[in-house]
Structures are given as C-alpha cells and as structure tokens.
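A note from the maintainers: we've had questions about how concatenated examples are separated. There is no special marker in the raw files; a new sequence line simply starts the next protein. For clarity in this README we add a label.
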Amino acid sequence: MRFLAPRALAPLAVAVLLAVPVPGLAADPPAPPPAIEPDDPIFARAAAALRLEGPARLGIQADDLALFGGDRFRLPLFDALAHDVRRAPTYVAAFRDQALAAATSPGDAASFAFGRVGVSVRRTLSGDPLADLAAKASAPEALGAALVALGADAAAREKAARVPPEVARPCALVLLAAARFRDWRERALAALTADERARLEAATLALARDGGVAERDWAFLEDVAARVDLGALAAGTEDLARAAERAARDLAAAAQPGAAPFELEVATPLGLVRVDGTRKATAHAIQGDCLLLVDLGGDDTYPAVGGTVASILIDVAGDDRYDASAAGVGGIAAGRLGASIVVDVAGKDSYRAGSFGLGAGCFGAGILCDLAGDDVYEGDRHVQGAGLFGAGVLLDAAGNDRYRAFTQAQGYGFTLGCGLLVDREGDDVYVADDATIRHPAPQTAEHNVSFAQGAAFGRRADLSDGRSLAGGAGLLFDGAGDDRYSCGVFGQGCGYWYGVGILADAGGADEYAGVWYVQGSAAHFAVGVLHDGAGADRYRATMNASQGCGHDLSVGLLYDGAGDDRYEAPSLSLGAGSANGLGVLLDRAGADRYVIAGGPGLGGASAGASAGLRRHLKTIGLFLDLGKAKDRDVYEGKTATERGAGPGKEWTQKGTAETPPGERGAGIDEK
C-alpha cells in the first residue's frame, strides 16, 4: 500500500497537513517527452559513420571486458547498459518514472532500490504481506500485547491502554512488523558465527565512517557479502517500510486538534518505544536504542535516533529539526546491520548528519521519507541516499529543497549497494561542496572528490591485493522544477570500477556545474548517465573528461530530451571516448550552443595505446544532435572548427598512419 501524497489522504488528515503550506501538490508534474528508442534509425546511421558492424556494437562488448577480468558482484544493471548504450535513454527514463512514483512510498522505494542491485523482492506481488499483522493490530489491547511480546514488562499493558485506539493500532502494526523484521534479519545473518558478526560490526563501522577499512578486512567483507542473505534483508525491510508508511498515514488522520494529550514510554530489549501525543514542541532525548518514536505534533528536535536491529521514527506535523551530527557516525535513517526508517509527514524540516545517515544503509537499509515542506539536508559523507552492501534511500515528495554534502552522497552506491535519492518536485539545489577542500581529488588537489548526485564506486585493487569489488548503483531522480546541481570531481551521473551512476531529471530549466568526470561520464569499467528529460538547461564542466565521456572500457552518456540548451565543455567531452571507452552526447531537440575548450570532443576518440591488444579494441566518441534545427545550433571553439561541426552536418574523426585501428569518432547534426 502506497502512502499517498497529502492531497490524497482522508479529509481529516488533509486538514491537518494543509495547516502547513504544501507547494506544488495540486497536480502531478508534467510528463517529459518520451526517450529515444533503441531501434531509432539514428543509431544505424551512427554505426555506419563509425564503421561498426551494426548499431548493436554501440557498447563495451562482454567478451572484450572478460579479457581484463571481471567481478563476482558486478550488477546486472551494469551489463544491461554497458553492452548496448542504445538502451540507456529508455531504460533510465523508465527507472526515473518508477522512482518518482515511489516518492511517497518507502515500501515501493525499498523494493526498487534492492532491485537495482539484483535483489528482486516484491512483497505485494500476490497480496498484502501485512494483512495478518494488520488483523492482529486491530484486536483490543494489541499495542500492549505487542510490547509484551517484544520483551517489555507486564506494566506495559496498563500504559498502552491509555493510548487512544486510533493511535494504538498503527503503533501496534509497526511493532509487529519490527518483530517480523528481527526474524528476517536473523535469517540474513544466519551463516555468520558470533565472532564473524562482531568483526562485521567493527568493519562496517569503519566503512560507514570514512571507508577506512583495514587491508585484511577487505577479504573478510568480500567473503561475508557472498554469505549474507540480502534477499532476506530486502524482504524484511520492505515489510517494515510498508508498515511505517501505513502507520504514518493513519497517525496523520488521528492527529486531531483538541484531542486529549497523552504520552507512552516503554523499554524493550529492541529499544525504547515512545509515543508523544502532547502536540507540543519537544526536544527528544534518546539514550541507547530506539525501536519506535512517534510524535503527533509540534516543532520538535531529534538527536541521533537508531537501533541495533530496527528503528522507526514517525513525525506527523511541525517544523522539525533532526540533528545527528554530534553522533559522528549514524543517527537519522542510518541502517547498519539492520533497518532505520524515518517518515516526516509535514512541515519545513532540517536534517543534519556527520557520516552515514539521512538515508544510508550498510548490510541493511536506511530510509528517510519527507512528504511536504521546503527542507534542508546537510551532511559530510555516506549521506542523503548512500548504499553499501545494502540500500540507502532519501525520498522528498514536495517543496523547494536544499541538499548539501561533501562526498559519497546524494545517490551513491558502493559494492552491492544502491544509494537512491528521489525528489518529486520543486526548485531544488544539490551541492556536493567543492569550496571547502576536505577530500582532495587525485586528479586535482584544488577540488574535492565528490562521488555524488548519481555516482557509483568500487574498490579497485589491481594495484594492491587484487581483491577488487565492483561498484554498486548510485541513483538520483528529480521530477519537476528548475534545479541546480554542483560538484567537484566525479559526479552527476558518474561510474567507477563496474559501478553504475545515474542522474535523471525529468524537466525544468536546470543547471549542472562540475569539474572532471561529471555529467554522464565514467572511468575504469563503469557506466555513467546524465539524463535530462526537458527544459532549457545549462551544462558546465571545467577541467576534463565530462559531458558524455567514457574512459578505460567505460560508457558515458549525456542525454537531453528537449529544450534550448548550452554546453560549456573541457577536453574529452561532448561525446568522447578514451582508452577503449565509449562516450556519447545525444541532444534530441532544441536550438543548442556547444562551447568546447579544446582536445578530443564533439564525437572524438583518443585510444592512447600504441601497441598491444588495447590498440585494436574500439575507442568511440559519438555526438548526436537530432533537433533538426538547421542553422540554429551554434558550435564554438577550435575543436568544432577542426571537426567541421555545424548545423545540418555530419563529420568523422580523421586519422593518420599511426592512429590505432580501433579509434573511431563521429558527429551528426541532423538536418
């Protein structure tokens, strides 16, 4: 059952929610134009210009990749996009629409996120997985019974009896789902000994904090990742998330103005259970694990809230402040070896974390769902949709929101992890801070390494112990609104080491600013896609390898569906392949301006290798402008002149006797 946006709730809940302005929820965002299909004739024309055997060769071939090794945790999503780039526009658009539809449903989002890392669990496929729990929760004194079943003392029944039935029922449902999640979690970790669990606890703490895992622990993590049952974690997480969204809906309907105040606080072995029905501004103080925290109103403040096994926080109304920065690691919607879910129904809220939070999962799941209001999200690393061997999800349904982090954030995926950030509508600002240098990039110490805004990363160990780990899926999906994105090095639809990074923005006049390996770029056996559905957009990258660049057996794609756009590009950009990579720029419609600083681009390739196998493998750069806006597109820069690029023209990269035979570049500005 999806927790619908506030306009679709029961009338009483609508009255409660609309006490706070909810901009942009009057209608669904406009649909962007359909993406180009894989069988579009332009791909056959492009393949001919590149002297390929056919359009199916527009990809990094599986047999070529296999010559350089592989990875046991490589995602099916990687294979689908890397081997045939023609699929990417339609596949990514379908993922975007599915994710945007799940922006108000933590349960749907959990299923989607785990599905992107090859864990296919759909608990609602043949009915309601919570039907039996809902029936139990509706029984008299169900809340007290659920508390006692979780290990609370007998006095819990008397305390629970003072909770109004319309509040007790959804709380009981969540507690019953938490007990079920405990069983799923035990099944997921059943193959591990007690000593291995303790070691995993320590290793994941280091990984979540800063990635500083001891060298000897990487082999351990690789072994454990193959034995932990992620399917069981996914099933338990989806049930718990659906219980939380259903409870939030019912609690919003129950939060009637003028109702008698009440409070409940009970300790259980899984953590504290607290229900605040005072509707006053409350500064919640939590010591230790918190299993369930419900607040029915008021401008509240929350510190770090979490649990060893499961933690659920539901806030119904008010302008709230969540601040887990003092915790250092974890805090708000941070699921490490368990699940942590936060649903905030209404209000202008602020969220802060240090490392690992605001929708972060590591061998577990963290889900943060904010349904209304102009919100602010701030953190350092592994925040705002970050998944490492699990799922990290941030959902924002409405409002003009501000996201700020430093690195590995805003839709970031590590091995077997999906980091998912979904913002349904509003004029949003996404910042991967590049002004304060905390994480200097290997490419240029004057900029941070971001790995943010749809970015995926894997452990590259061919220079150390050889125990490489494929990257995960880093996904950022934004619906309607004029949005701004900025980052340093690696971001905005970027993949590294078998990872898949995707940024897809459905519509609006958007601005993208980055430095190196940004805006649909990938390096070292990876896939990076930036997909903008519509709008007059501006793309600006300043240093190298961006805007549809694939380097070292990688695929990079920048796709723009419609609008009069401006591209400001460095070298190796606007459809550029490097070192047996494939880079594609595809602008489907509009009167566009392309400004390139120099070097290979606009359908350019630079193989680099002068001998050996690499000399013969394909390196492809492809530029396609399909707007049929003859004499309206503008090309500026030395590269454009050298290519002979212009409105209504077709060009190919000219080689010499020394040019590797696999180096191919072409551009088409469609008449």
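[label: protein 2]
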Amino acid sequence: MRKGLVSTLFLVMVAVVSGAQKTDIKDLNPRFQKWLNEDVIYIITPREREVFLSLSNDRERDLFIEAFWKQRDPTPGTPENEFMRDHYERIKYANHYFGRRAPRPGWQTDRGRVHIILGEPNDVQRFDGSANTYNSEVWFYQGMVEQGLPAGFSLVFFQDGNVGEYRLYSPLRDGPQGLMPAYEGDPRDYYAAYLALRNLEPELARVSLNLVAGESQSFMDRPSLVSERLFAAINAAPEKMVEDRYAQKFLMYKDIVEVEYTANYMDSDSLVKVLKDESGLTFVHYTVELPRLSVSQYQNIFSASLKVNGTVENQQGKIIYQYDKGVDLRIDGDQMKTVSQKPFNYQDMFILIPGEYKFTVLIKNEVSKEFTSIEQNLFIAEDAASPQMSPLVLGYNATQKETAVDRPKPFLLGSYQIELQPNRTFVRSDDLAVAFQIFGLSPQQREKGEIRFVMFKGDEAIHVLTRNASHYPQSPHFLETIPLQEFNPAHYRILVSVLIDGQEIVSQEDEFDVTFLEAISRPWTYARILPPPRDAFYPFIIGRQHLNAGMMEKAKPYLEQAYRMNPADPASAISLAQVNMALEAYGEIEPLLLPFLAQPQTGYEALFIQGTAYQYLGEWAKAIATYDQAIACFGLNTSLLNAVGECYVGLQDREEALKAWEKSLELNPDQPEIEEKVKEVKKK
C-alpha cells in the first residue's frame, strides 16, 4: 500500500546508500570485522550490512552498533538490553556445546546457527545411532509466527557417519534414506525409505518427510518444498524482528543530527497531502506518527520537547523554504494514563508555490535524544482553467465545525476536520471518511456533474456509489462517508471520479486496509494552527519562496503586500530590499531600510544591502558610513573592506582605498583581483 510514497522513499534511501563509498571488510578494524562476520552475521539484515560498510570512520561505526542493538531492545526504558544479552549468551552456548566435535567454532555449525537465530527449542528428542541409523536430534519450535515462521515445526540434525558435527537435515535433499547408513533401497523412492526408517525409529520417521506440523503431504513421489521454504524463513526471521529503515536514516542524517541522537532513530509512519484553501493558495499538509512518545517526569507532570526542522529543496538544489519549530508538551498524570499506550501524531502544514521539490522533515525529541524523519517528493501544479482535483484524504472520523474557521489547520477542508492515521487502516465498525477538493467546476458542471466512488478489492469493483455534485453543500470541499461493515478484512483501493455527461474529466485514487481487529489504538494528536488568512505571514512566505527560487519579478508584489501590511517588520523590509537589489531598483531600498539602520538589533544583512545600494547609486560617502556601521557592529570581513575600498576609489581617495584593500588581504591573502587593484593604485 501507499506505493507512491514507499517507492519515493525507497529511491531516496537507495540513492543515499549507493552514493556512499563502500569499505572492504578486510580494511575494517579487526573488532569491526569480528562484529560483522561473527557476532551478528546471522541477525544483521542486508540493508544494515550495506549501510555499515558505507560508514567512513570508526566513530560512526561505534554509533551504528549502538543503534543496531537499540533497535532490537525489547525494553528501551531500562538500563539492560535483554536482546543483546540473550544473543551473546546464545553465541556462548553454541561455542561451548556445538563445537566440541566439530572442526570449527560452534557458532559456525548448523546447530549453532539455528540456536543463535531461534534460541532454545521448546523440546529436543535425541536418537542414538546404530548400524542402521545415524545419531540424530529433533528440535521442536512453536510460537514464532510473528517472525514469519509456522505455528509449529521441527528441525532435524544428524551426524553423518556418526562422527563430526551435526548438520541440518533436509527432507528433499537428504530424504529418510539419508538417515540410514545401511539403506539399500531405491534412493528415489522416498516413501519406501520412510517405511524402512519407521521400522527402526518411528518418531524420527514421523518428521523425516515433512518438518512443518499440520502440513499434509503426499509421499508417493518426493517431499514438497514446504520444508525448504521453512529453512529460508528461518534465515530471514531476524529481518522480521526489526524495521531496518533506521539504518538508512542513520546514514542520511549522521552529519546533520547531534552525536547523542544518531543511534536513536525512531521509526514512524507519515502522510503528506497537497490541498488548497478557498483563495486558491496551496498548502502541504503532513502528519508524522510515532508508535510512542518518550517523556520525562517531574512529580505529576510529564513533558516532551520536540524540535522540528523542515526543508523544501527544488530540482536545482536551492532551498526554497526552511523552518524550525519547537513543541513543548506538558501532560498531567491523568492525561498520561489515557495517552501512554497510544501512538503520537504530529501534524503541521505550510504554504508552497508551484514547482517540483524534495521535502524533508527532521523531528528530534530532546528528552529522549531520539529522532525521526520523512522524505518525499512534491509536485505543486500551476492553476489551470480545467477542473483540478486534490488527492484523497482518508480518515476514520470527520467532524464539521459549527462556527466559521478562520485559521488554517492540518487536514481541515472547509469546515470538515478529518481525523486520520498515516497507515490508513480501519476496522469494520468505522465509517470511512473520504475528503477531497475540486476546483474549477463551472456552475453548469456543478449542476449536472456526478461524483462516483468505486471500491476495488484486487481488480474487482465491489462497491459503487454515485452522487450528483450539487449534493455536496461545501464545494469546492467534498466529504463522503462510507460504512465499512460489509467490507471483509482485506486491502482495498478507492477511485473517486468526476463525471460530466458520463465522461470522466478528473479522478484520484488511494488505498486502505480493513483489519480483522475489532478495535485500533487511535493516536493523540498535536496539530499546529496557522495565522488567519489575512495575516501578512502568507504574502511574506510566498514572496520569500519566489525570492529563494530566483523569481524576483514574482516575489516583488507579494513582499510589497507583506511590507504594506506590516511595515515595522524588518524581515519583510529586508526581503523586499533584496528583491529590489536583484532588480536593480536601488532607489527603492533606502525608504525600506532606513528606519531600521539606527536600531541596535539591525542585522548585518540590512546594513550591507543599504551600503551596496548607496554604492551603486554613486552615493559614496553614505555607502562608506553604512559599511563603517556594519564594521562597528559585526567586525571586519573581506566583503566590507573590499566594498569600502571601491567607495574610496569613487571619491578619488586612493590612499584610503589602499588601506582598506591591504587590510582585506591581511585577512585573506588569496584574493588575486584585490591584489591586482592594489598594484594599480600603487602605480598611480
């Protein structure tokens, strides 16, 4: 499910790993060689192994090993990692008991490998060999369904020739005949061999053709592949015990997040939807769901402090939008009892201009030093004359606000607030809320248009609902609820289409699951609310995004609007000044920045822009005074000194120009252009 997001995320992950330089195992420090090729050889996933070999230094490798064990810790809130303790106990046991008669260490034997992966069996039967049978052991396991294994199964180990180590028996490759040294029958007749072994060791014969309990088998030909699939499932069982996405996240963010966070990746689910408001502005709504939220406790108050960093980067690698937000949560004891066993859902939204982007969110919990992230590609379409339909938003509940809502909120469409989870899993008692938007419908299309909902199970359409478009009172916002009582547990696809005279003009689809469970733990949610639509925040953000994308002509009217709405805001004034500088409208800069230049908190950027504007206008003295103010506030740097030198040349004061440039060269001698100017001044 969620093929688009998953494939996008997978491609990002692959790109990160494939782009990293791999280290040859033989070049690793011996302790890392031992860890990789001995300690965890049976339980490390291919993804984890590849990431480990992509790390560049021992510090990163130590942190990765710490993360490796933390991801498997069944009780992360306690000092001891029980999984790691038990794993090394298994290795110790294997070396002590299974390597005695083997030419290699016990962990390398078949019994050692199985014991390390699966642990101690529920039951062991031993068969002492004779002239007619080999020494054998039957290990029985049950209760490992969550690891992708059958409910009950046996494994047979036998000592070929009654000497040396025991090896794993295969009904298909060895057959009952392989357990009897003196068997003289047809090696292709498994059933005859089974009858012969049954006369010698009935209990051993019982598992000689099929290792999986409850599996029916016809023995007239050859054993089925059931047992072979069991062996493959055992080798893959460790991959079922961990969600190894953390490994790519470790590789992606090891140079970004602080060291104390690196080993503590929190797995999360996420969902991103692009929606519009009534004015046509496009917002990116997203939610990140954690299976739990780590908190600290002081008396009866529980708290968590989250830091959220979002970045939107265009196809050329320019950062179009970036934000940092803090979330301080305070929960009393009674509230904690309610939410402690529930997932935590963080929801946010932001406005974004048309284009193609890579969107990244990094969330850090400062209490537990954990982090999680999402990465997704975004496409924001330009407005079009033809009807446009938003992605579908599928929720387990939808409430309608009785009063007008004038502040945008995540997953609020008109007055419909959609409650949802990223995994889009529902129980049969739910009413599926299907929300979406349609813009650009003419009055005639709205009057005679139809909205059709089709539910698919596989390729079969199992439910169809059609309504007139005028049935929905909040157009362009649409909400339909579909009871799921008649939907059996399965994976489904929903297709929503707009039909005009029976012809589809636009459509969207999504996927969801109906579970066999009677109830699901729904999350507790923290949702950020944006300022009212008339706030200067919106034209400012849109203008800044156009500015960052290099689209100055489009940026200017938005930033002018933001400045008019809030002329006391230095950020709006400076941003508009940057646009005017790029458009060479130097004369429009002074009225914007002059009110801020005398303020102590005036930033370097405002002073440098104003100084540069004066310089381009030929107002050399004003430029020098402004640059001197910047130097007094923020110290010397080569950019300021070089600009001051140019201004003194404009004033025909070559001596002062020379002083400024020579000081610049003291700070950074590697400036050939300034060296050449110094030579020219000295000649004159």
